[in-house]
Amino acid sequence: MSDVDSLAPLRAPSAQRPLLGMTVLAVEDSRYASEALRLMCLRSGARIRRADCLVSARRHLQVYRPSVVIIDLGLPDGSGVNLIADLDQARPRVGVILAISGDASAGVAALAAGADGFLPKPVESLGAFQQAVLRHLPPERCPVGPYGVSDEVVSPDPLAYRDDLEHVQSLMESGQSAAVLAYVAQFLSGVARAAGDRALAQAAEALTGHGSGAGIARVSGLIKARLAARMAI
């Protein structure tokens, strides 16, 4: 079943809503990053669905065929690169496949696997998001005539950041294996950078490779302090 070609003819995109009539599947485990993408899709006229892991994304793709798939490269159950490669080989192919990551160097592997483009995190510019999609669409799916590139900066709801912190806290309380700490390091450092939380981002990055007792305690303490501060507000 297609999200975009099913019951009614597509409405034409416009300069104000250049992605009107399209559906985006965001394969993203961060609620904060997902909220940013949701707001950008809303401003652009597109619908959005979310999958928070590879298993959920593959289940979704068995039923729906979105216009655009945006895939985070660091997911809890594996690398988004594998899903990109599968989607690039599938027929019919999804119209646009974009990779997203807080690690700029990861874009090379994503493009080699078949991604049409790469978005470095944090994705804040509405205009950059729209252009990343539009440059890979056929002319008939793009707005007719010239249109301005938006300079709007999208700011997700801080409550979404709280959700991500609670998720990490739960993971660390359930176990601190090497695999868990590696995931926490890449997930939390990216989310904290996007939220402008430099201290927590640096503490999370220090977990990479070893995760000493002192480093784990620092990350846990910073998360608890932020959650407590938000509860007090």
From TrEMBL:
InterPro entries: Bact_response_regulator, CheY-like_superfamily, Sig_transdc_resp-reg_receiver. Gene3D superfamilies: 3.40.50.2300. The keyword Lipid metabolism does not apply. Keywords: Phosphoprotein. Residues 23-136 form the Response regulatory domain. GO terms for biological process: phosphorelay signal transduction system. SUPFAM superfamilies: CheY-like. The modification 4-aspartylphosphate is found at residue 72. This is Response regulator receiver domain-containing protein.
